[in-house]
Amino acid sequence: MDIEQKKITIKANLEALEKLLYEANVRASEAVAAINRGEVNEAIGASLGIEEMLDQATALHGAAKAIQRAAITE
Q: Rounded to whole angstroms, what are the CA distances from 23 to 31, 34, 55, 62?
């Protein structure tokens, strides 16, 4: 993979990371709004899936770093 392709791939990973973190933030905000209304079940329901999103975000970030490290060593 040439340097330009690596940049494109890193960019795609970081854009996907941004989207996932945005959605996790939206869900967390919805959960906080629900708990502030005293709606515990709705708050927990709104937060479901955040852990998986964070796992995916970690994987995307790790992949971007790995690609960058590969670019440096070539």
A: 12, 16, 13, 19
